[in-house]
């Protein structure tokens, strides 16, 4: 595919993701710990089980995007 | 086995020119054929295959290991597109590290077989990572086949003369008993009908020919698979497969045996590559041309799911230095086409030493027993 299209644009945006995620290391670790706790504990992983941690991660991420 | 090639012939009669030419050479029959109508659709006369070509394709269909024919997991047309895209990248050399390493290991195994092979075939070669490590006194002539012509054009330098053929691995356009050596590196995991493909490889080998292959299998990319699965479960409430199903190492022995190979050797190499994060893993897989092409794949992954999966990947599998590992389990296999000169198992009752003598090794001169 040559030229600029939706795929090239989204691929460009995705290239920034790793750096932005690095800025939110704390929230990412918290979310990760919440999900991995279900793999060892008795609790089954259900939809939105770690919603709070994910919302925190998402707000940190969108703030990083705005200020990058 | 309802391969791409057979589908094209039966449905609309078009078939890749290269493939048709090769098939004509393979069966030794003229290319332009009789006017037998194979399908009920209207076809141009030059696209109709001859009776024997039709029989060849029909035979190929019944070579499938599965009762009732097709096992259709992967979209081969999409895979060809992905390989073409990967080959057309400016920096496609950056993603070659895994393939060159495995190519080197397969070439190593070819060297271990102390023979000269006049004619060899590389199935699914991509840019050809094996031929460059082999010398002219091991392999005299090399045939390279791949589903994507673009990567064949970018083929790497090698010592011996090579011929490139664009062909699907599931339908090799070669005559029986042609090749002394068939190699395959990291392309068998995209084949729909693996038993059929292995049987075809066995067919094109000469008796006492050898097949040396490496394919991705076992627990490859289990970290990526688990992270995506957990993220999708938590974010969306369900999950869909993002990583292809792989052959287990235990099944490989059976597959090779069923295909008619003897004196099998199967071993497994685990390669762990460290990446900065999940996005780099996915980008490298895309650059290698290894994107998902299963029919059941979802066309999109949500941003939230990707973000969640990256966080989970780091937390569950991350190393101390901040990198994340990605595991590639490479299954190496060697199989020989049966021949009278090969060693057979000994007859029952022909043993002339006892296992009990094992304990006497290294204990000084053996006692004379009556």
From TrEMBL, chain A:
InterPro entries xref list: NDUFAF8
Protein name (Swiss-Prot/TrEMBL): NADH:ubiquinone oxidoreductase complex assembly factor 8
Organism: Coilia grayii (Gray's grenadier anchovy)
Superkingdom assignment: Eukaryota
TrEMBL record, chain B:
SUPFAM superfamilies the record matches: S-adenosyl-L-methionine-dependent methyltransferases (SSF53335)
BP terms from Gene Ontology: methylation; mitochondrial respiratory chain complex I assembly
Location(s), subcellular: Mitochondrion
Keywords for this protein: Methyltransferase, Mitochondrion, Oxidoreductase, Transferase, Transit peptide
GO cellular component: mitochondrion
Keyword rRNA-binding: no
Protein name (Swiss-Prot/TrEMBL): Arginine-hydroxylase NDUFAF5, mitochondrial
Region (Disordered): 341-370
GO MF annotation terms: methyltransferase activity; oxidoreductase activity
Domain Methyltransferase type: residue ranges: 121-212
Family: Belongs to the methyltransferase superfamily.
Keyword Cytoplasm attached: no
